[in-house]
């Protein structure tokens, strides 16, 4: 595949989806940087995974190592002032009457992408990459394709500079995301994702399953397990 000369900034949380997006960007763009947000998550396990995943990716894929640039971690602690959710306070995760899980921080992805765009502009990057997805999403309206297309236009106008928002997982199921990472980096990449990425809402890394670490019961673990099981089933049938 011919290389895209642009610099990409990947919104990278340390989870499965954003790691697949990072691999996707590294396979395409000549220079790739990562950005993460610390906003007082109840569990910082994902953030702790970020550095390890970057190191492991560079080690396992030398062609990507030369393209992988700086990591940026932004302190968005102020989000705690405008959210009252299970992610930031000690409260059980449950579905609200509007069908959204109470882990919802209103418009969170809009805020993240605006901060990412400002940083990208400073760093000379003109592509933002995020793991937002309509197929398996938990009802978050700020993850929808149309929302992000509108945001891409608003950001490009507001910066007076073209900024492309790429969402390689937008129309993929969780099973297809596993297949994508296998296409990008083979079994080695999927093993890296299983071992080092974190998804569990409860921050549990004491239990190791075939699909990775987690409590096995929270909505994030259920989604990851079901996706992995389906991916293996699809492979068996192929
Ligand atoms: Zn869990």
The total of beta strands comes to 7
Helical amount among residues, as a percent range? 40-55%
Shape: globular
Give, in spatial order, the strands making up the sheet with the most strands. Answer: 3-2-1-4-5
Q: How many alpha or pi helices?
A: 7
Strand-residue proportion: 15-25%
Under the CATH scheme, which architecture would be assigned? 3-Layer(aba) Sandwich
Tally of domains: 1
The description of the largest β-sheet is: 5 strands, parallel
Give start-end ranges of low-pLDDT stretches: none
The Rg value, from CA coordinates, equals: 17 Å
- In CATH terms, the superfamily is HUPs
Please give the CATH class.
Alpha Beta
Judged by helices, strands and strand pairing, the structural class is: alpha/beta
Bound molecules: zinc ion
Describe the protein.
- This protein has one domain: HUPs (Rossmann fold), CATH 3.40.50.620.
- The radius of gyration is 17 Å and the shape is globular.
- It contains 7 helices and 7 strands.
- The mean pLDDT is 89.
- Bound molecules: zinc ion.
- Zinc ion binds next to helix 7.
SSE layout:
Blueprint lengths: L3 E8 L4 H11 L2 E10 L6 H16 L1 H4 L2 E8 L32 H16 L3 E3 L15 H15 L4 E3 L7 H23 L11 E2 L2 E2 L5 H19 L1
Parallel strand pairs: 1-2, 1-4, 2-3, 4-5
Antiparallel strand pairs: 6-7
The site of zinc ion has 9 residues, from helix 7.
Name some characteristics of this structure.
238 residues, alpha/beta, Rossmann fold, five-stranded parallel beta sheet, two-stranded antiparallel sheet, globular, binds zinc ion
């Amino acid at each position: 595949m011919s290389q895209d000369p642009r610099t990409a900034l990947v919104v990278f949380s340390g989870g499965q989806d954003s790691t697949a997006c990072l691999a996707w960007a590294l396979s395409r763009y000549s220079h790739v940087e990562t950005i993460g947000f610390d906003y007082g998550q109840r569990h910082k396990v994902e953030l702790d995974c970020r550095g390890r995943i970057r190191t492991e990716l560079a080690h396992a894929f030398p062609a990507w190592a030369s393209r992988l640039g700086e990591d940026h971690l932004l302190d968005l602690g102020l989000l705690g002032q405008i959210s009252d959710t299970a992610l930031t306070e000690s409260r059980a995760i449950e579905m609200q009457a509007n069908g959204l899980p109470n882990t919802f921080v209103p418009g969170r992805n809009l805020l993240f992408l605006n901060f990412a765009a400002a940083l990208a502009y400073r760093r000379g990057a003109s592509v933002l990459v995020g793991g937002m997805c309509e197929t398996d999403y938990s009802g978050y309206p700020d993850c929808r394709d149309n929302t992000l297309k509108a945001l891409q236009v608003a950001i490009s106008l507001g910066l007076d500079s073209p900024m492309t928002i790429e969402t390689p997982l937008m129309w993929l199921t969780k099973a297809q995301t596993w297949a994508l990472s296998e296409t990008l980096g083979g079994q080695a990449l999927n093993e890296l994702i299983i071992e080092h990425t974190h998804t569990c809402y409860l921050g549990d890394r004491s239990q190791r399953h075939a699909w990775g670490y987690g409590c096995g019961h929270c909505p994030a673990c259920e989604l990851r397990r079901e996706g992995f099981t389906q991916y293996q089933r699809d492979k068996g049938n192929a």
